[in-house]
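Box 3.1 A note on notation
Throughout this textbook, protein chains are presented in two layers. The first layer is the amino acid sequence; the second is a token string describing backbone geometry. Keep the layers aligned when reading.
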Amino acid sequence: MSAFIVNKSHINAMVQAASHARLGWYHDKQFRQVNSDNIDAVGQMLLDENVKSVGYRYEDSQLTNLPGMADAEYLIPFQSHFVYKTLKPVELIKIITCYEYQSCEHPEWHTSEAKVFCESLKSDAISNLPGYDEAPWEWTDEQYYKAENIQRII
């Protein structure tokens, strides 16, 4: 599996979406939430996790020569910038999935705050997919046969 450091615009899109959704998550028994005071710190946390993963994957590489951003831009502290485009839920799910793929290489990923953040943001995006609210919460035979307009054969 190959991995690369995602562009800061990629991380910015994630933290902007989280901020817009007033996303909150729990990590290490503490509630966290993106807001204007900590959005840069949340973005930096995501960037650090990505760099940690890629550094682990390419342990023979120098920190300034990891795959991804040109000129080791990832060494410059993250700063969020406002964007006017609101991502569609499916676009957001896709960029989260890309980020997770690039950031899961090291053993601590499964307990990381970045993973919890991604799970929370992805869950929020899924709940905003078209048709989500109209879909049944529980699936029963009655709903299946009604949806398919078929009869149950005993």
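Residues 8-148 form one domain. The mean pLDDT is 90.
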